[in-house]
Predict the structure of Acyl--CoA ligase.
Amino acid sequence: MNQPAISPTLDTLFQRTLMRQPHALALLDPLNKARVTGHQPRRMTYAEADTAIEALSAHFVESGLPANSVIAIQLPNTVEFVLTVLAAHRAGLVVAVLPLLWRHAELTAALNRTAARAIVTMSTVDGVSYADLAMHAAAEAFSIRHVCGFGGDLPEGMASLDDVLARPPGLTRAVIQDGRKAAMISFDVTAEGFRPVPRPHFSLIAGGLAMSLEADIRQGATVMAAFAPMSFAGLASSLAVWLLSGGTLALHHPFENEVLEQQINAHECEVLIAPAQLALRLGDADLAARMPSLRNVIGLWRAPEQVAASDAWIAPHAPLTDVYLFGEAGLFGTRRGEDGMPVPVMPGPHGAPREQSGSSIAGEILLTPKGTLGLRGAMVPIAAYAPPQPVGETLTAQPPRDYVDTGYAARLDRPSGAICITAPPSGIMAVGGYRFLSNDLQEWARRLGQGALLTALPDRLSGHRLAGRAQDNARAREALSELGLNPLMVEAFRDRSGSV
């Protein structure tokens, strides 16, 4: 009898490389990790990483977490994040990624919406006590049974995962490795509000393949990931790209330019994955002389409407691949040509690599009847974005939809037929990668008091920035803190001119 083909999981990809080269270097921590988390940087081979993954996986099983239950993770871009995600998958768990900039209210809402059984965090990140944030959120989430953390001075009741890594692995359980099983839950903000977005393994791998094939990343490459991993794009661009290449993953907690450059040169990184605006700044700074080992740069655009107007890439020794991000709905990439300018994006199916005839289809781009951009393909979670059932028509079957409407305004360029993305979704703001409804901005402004001003201004680096009159800044930060905003989020709202 023929057995049905089973698609690989992220752990399957890891174990393939482990069997082939167990003593090859697998993971490299940020050089400034001691400042960020208080831990010393780690260097791990595939065999060492496997031992750590096995120990964490056994701990999750011994803690009584049932297979297919949800484990929430709020960690910085360090080795602990990678180990925890792979350990959760090895234990048959689904990972829910929680951005570091989230406020307490969103953290609690995410835990309750996903019925998470456990949460894993770091004791401190950049001086902020994430252990306390996790404990307070867990107290308001009925489903949470276990709170775990890396680092010292953990609150009472929080299990130390450093202690777990320091002892031999316990017994784990057998899990069927099937890429069709749920792998992660990320969270998006749409016009309808806060939305959990579940994905199977094959969807994550499809996102990683779309980037790695378009950028032509060689097997065994050393990849520098300098993009926050707490999203679909973050996981696909770091974890999936690394596992597909079977090389070394170097991590950088965003952002310290001097440290990033030092890491790239110290580890002789061949691939840099970073926010596109940061990549363009590096490209303007004599990249060939400053970071000669780079051969590929992948720039991730949180504001894809800005790609067409971006500057030319002037570092031909390391071609730039633009990756268009559409929240948690999906992505696609285009490698720039010899002139360094963005490549026109045509509607219809697109392969990976895009210009190679006969390449595998990575997805499809379309223009919806509403004049917005739609996506379909293996990486696009169509069911998660299904429109709400009209009131009073719960018994009426709705017409099926086989694409996701990203909400980004788009049109066709008449001379070329290319799709032009013109504006982000209506009613949604983004500051430093943090998306929220514009109605929230009105609530924050109301809390500032009479005569105060708080507005969102377009910004090339972060999509928008929050700005207020100088005399309102202290009051603005105080009001935002009262609303439960993470302290790091308040810091992200400041700019050099003193705006919040």
